Amino acid sequence: MPAALASKPEFARQERSVADSSFDVVSKVDHQEVDNALNQTVKELSTRYDFRGTGASIEWSGEEKIVLSAESEDRVKAALDVFKEKLIRRDISLKAFDAGEPQASGKVYKITGSLIQGISTENAKKIAKKIRDEGPKGVKAQIQGDELRVSSKKRDDLQAVIALLKGSDFDLALQFVNYR
């Protein structure tokens, strides 16, 4: 680069930004899509013949918890299957929803499930180790709160890391955002 151009700040900035490409690995759920799936499940539970008279219901319990209830254990499990089907149709991974076992509460059976968001420090370390051990050389992974920043000089290496992570099973739903 000529000396006259290097003294101008916009050219120096431009050259630095070209040096490293990066993306973030996150585990987030679109709350609106989950709400839409829940509303579709409510509608199906109220109209399907096999759920009539079983008291089957599904509702939010706080910000991240969902409660399903019915008068029999098999009906509450069937309601859970309907909800999971609706999540899949809305492209939400079932790894992002953790459902418990049916609990008897008087005459009603309940299942409490929760949405899983964010990457724990333990899982972030596992992902970073996988990138270090099996990924291309020169790729760096940094833990930043509940997400992971992956950077490299070569964009092809970043594509290889995305493919590696998609092929791995970390028991959580991963998304790749802010690809630059």
Give the SSE map.
Blueprint: H1 3-6, H2 9-19, E1 21-26, H3 31-47, E2 57-60, E3 65-70, H4 73-89, E4 97-99, E5 103-105, E6 108-115, H5 121-134, E7 140-144, E8 147-152, H6 155-166, E9 175-177
Provide a short characterization of the protein structure.
The protein has 180 residues and is of the alpha+beta class.
Question: Which range does the strand content fall in?
Answer: 15-25%
CATH architecture of the largest domain: 2-Layer Sandwich
CATH topology of the largest domain: Alpha-Beta Plaits
Distance between the termini: 23 Å
Which features characterize this protein?
four-stranded antiparallel β-sheet; Alpha-Beta Plaits; 42% helix; 6 helices; alpha+beta; 24% strand; 2 domains; 180 residues
Give a structural overview:
The protein is α+β, with helices and mostly antiparallel strands. It has 2 domains: 20-28 and 119-177, Alpha-Beta Plaits (2-Layer Sandwich), CATH 3.30.70; 31-115, Alpha-Beta Plaits, CATH 3.30.70. Helices cover 42% and strands 24% of the residues. It has 6 helices and 9 strands. It has helices at 3-6, 9-19, 31-47, 73-89, 121-134, 155-166; strands at 21-26, 57-60, 65-70, 97-99, 103-105, 108-115, 140-144, 147-152, 175-177. The strands form 2 sheets. Strands 2, 3, 4, 5 and 6 form a 5-stranded antiparallel beta sheet that branches. It has a 4-stranded antiparallel beta sheet with strand order 7-8-1-9. Helix 3 crosses helix 4 (73-89). It is elongated. The two termini are 23 Å apart.
